[in-house]
Amino acid sequence: MNMINIIKPNTPFAALLTLLGRIGLAAIFILAAVNKIQYYDGNAAYMAASGLPGELLPLVIAFELVGGVFILLGALTQLTALAFALFSVVSALLFHFDLADQMQFLMFFKNIAMAGGFLALAVSGAGQWSIDHKQATRQQ
Asked: Residue 120's closest CA among 17, 29, 2, 28?
């Protein structure tokens, strides 16, 4: 058994793991968008307190919701994953850069870790169980 490469590409197990990874990455953004809708005024005030206009909140909600669904379904995955990687880093810098505060420290590096996950997803692609894969096989 090769202990370095234990997951063989293009197998049902690899497809399952890629799908589970996409679900995990998508869930945090879809749930964040729902939270921003439920607590719209508080989130707009938080953005304003951080120096951003609260009027940007609908765009953030749309980005998180639509992008989250794209990642979940594996549609336009590379482009969406790159956009989320950038969004995660920018969000870390704008909202969680008080590294002396333990909670902000954790939130900052959570965002950096998510950016890393999105970069890996952008490189590896959405996997076999995705819209991207279905479109690619249809074009061959």
From this structure: 17
